[in-house]
Structures are given as C-alpha cells and as structure tokens.
Amino acid sequence: NAWTMPIKTRIDMLSTGIKTPVGIKVMGPNLDSLNAIAQRIETVVKKTEGVRSVYAERVTGGNYLDIEIDRYRAAGYGLKIDDIQNVIKSAVGGMNIARTIEGLERYPINVRYPRELRDNPEAIKKALVYTSDGRAVPLGHVADLKFSKGAAMIKSENSRPTAWVYVDLSNIDVGTYVQNAQELVAENITLPAGYSIVWSGQYENMMEVAERLRIIVPLTILVIFLLLYLHFKSFTNSLIVMLSLPFALVGGIWLFYMFGFNTSVAVYVGFIALAGLAAETGVVMLVYLEEAVNRYRISGKLKSIIDLRSAIIEGAVERVRPKLMTVATTIIALLPIMLGHGTGSEVMQRIAAPMVGGLISSTILTLILVPVLYFIIEQRKLPAAVK
Question: Does residue 379 surpass a pLDDT of 90?
C-alpha cells in the first residue's frame, strides 16, 4: 500500500511512471532474472530507515493456458493454422461478426462458446474445427493444451524489459533515503552482466531539478551582481552588497531547520528569492551611506577619519527606520504564508521560511557589518595627509 494523495499520485505516474515517492527500475533481458533481482532488492531495502512499505512487482506471476498447434496432425486433416486459430479466437475469446444499430447507439455482436463449454481445458479440447470438406475435428486432436507461468504484464523502458520496485517513505526526505538505500543495495546486491538499476520516482525529478539549479543559482547570483554594478558603477560597492547573501543563508537555514523541513525544490526556490531580498537590504543600507559621505564631502566637512566615521554613523543610524520598514513589510507579507494551513500550505511554507529567516539575519548583520566594511574602504580613499 502506498498512502499518497490522489492528484499527487497521478502527477508522479504521468512524469515518471512510479506512483510512490521512490521507485527502483531493474532493467535486463530476462524476465525471470528481473523478478529474482527485484525481490532481493525488496528484501534489502526493507531494512533501511524511513521505509513505510516496499513492494517488488512479480513480473512472472501470470498463469496461462497455452494452446500449441501440432502442424503435422493439422496437415493430416487438411487444416491450415489459420483455420485452427480462428476457432480458438471465436470459441474462447469471442469474435465480432456484425454490428447492430439502435437509433444513435451502435453495439457489436460478439459470438463465442457459452461459459460451461470454455471454462476448463477439457471443454476447450472439444471445440470443433471444420475441414474444407465439412468434417468436424475436435481441437484436442490437432493441438496440445497445457498451463504455464509467464509475465502478468511486460514493461519496457529504453527498449529493455523492466521490473519495478515501489518504495513508500515516512518521516524522511527522498534524497537522504535514496543515498542510504543505494549504499545498502550496492553492498548486498551483485547485478549480472547486462542488468542495471535506475532510481526513479520523485528522486528522478529531484535530480533533474538539481541539474537545473546548478545553472540557475550561479546565473541568479551573476545577474544580481551585474544589476548592482550597473547601479553603483563600482565593483567594490557591489561586492559589499553581495556579502549580505551569506548572512541571509544563515537565518534561512536556521529557520527551516527549526520547523523541521527537509530540503526540497520549494526550499531552493525560497533561497533563490532570498538572494534578491538580501541584496535589496544591502542596497538600501549602502545608498544611505553613500548619500551621507557625499553630503559631507560636498559641504567640505570630510577632513579626517573622525568626520568619515561621523558621516557613516549618520547614514547607518539615523536611517534605521526606513531600512527596517523595508524588511518588516516583506516579513509581514510572508508570515501568513508561513504560518497558514490548508491546501498547498506545505509547499508555500517551505518557500517562505528561508525568506523570513534570511531577512532577519541579513538585516541584523547588514546593519552592523556593511557600515564597517564601507568605512574600511572609504578610509583608504582619504588623502595621506588627512589620515
């Protein structure tokens, strides 16, 4: 049993074919070997932490009645293979012989033997095959009937037969579980030549997203830095603002750890959004610092390090309220999302939590460290006589 939400299950099945959070696809040429490997994996994976249920599909659990036509005996009666197969198809499976039209409704007319004449091999053997000269020959005289085991359903992927193992999880994130399970499978399962294992389900989606994030995250940081440089026209000032990003990560990680969230795509999206908000906080601080220093410089008050310190204190301290208002309005807007409950809240909370925590830490550290860094840089620009 896999206790997942219906819509989520359908989406997972459409995207990966696996309806559980984690699926293991065993690929190889022989169905019996696939069935054996899948069941061994089922036994091993049950031992891992966080497993709610594990089930390996029995790909060879089907029961079949094979009707093998004896060509020599059939030829002795003057019968063709097609004649015999038509009888099997019509007597056992049923054959559409016409279509009835009743107003706007159309129904096929299907003919086959009554159930009591086709519900066991001995009855099927008595099905009559007619020769070209009108003689009736029982099916058992020209064919052998026997039961056999076979595949209930043959699945293939990338032109290879596949056996699936479904794994349902509880109180563990997909990435951590798969990492632990992969190590355990590698230690206990030796695959024959020509066989391979693919980890699928939500893990497959997670790996695809991780590949994209390896491109999106550096690109996001680069775009933020480029926009800062176009605004300040200064590499140094842009770098000072970018230093607020690590401070923001600290608060974001702390808060989603306190809420007990596991890493997910939603958390990564929240951190990407946090990068822009943290840069905004740094920009507000640096803009006021530059305004204060330029005002001192234009008025001629910037004559010593003490004057520079006074200008920076004025820009940093006397403008605390607009900076806090900028952060507070964003946090107030995010709090209902982070604390709300309802459909979709589990996703939105994981986006909002890193943003709220990161804004708090980046604001505190920005108010303290950005003025200090700006003072150190502007101090080097003062003439030697002033120093």
Answer: no
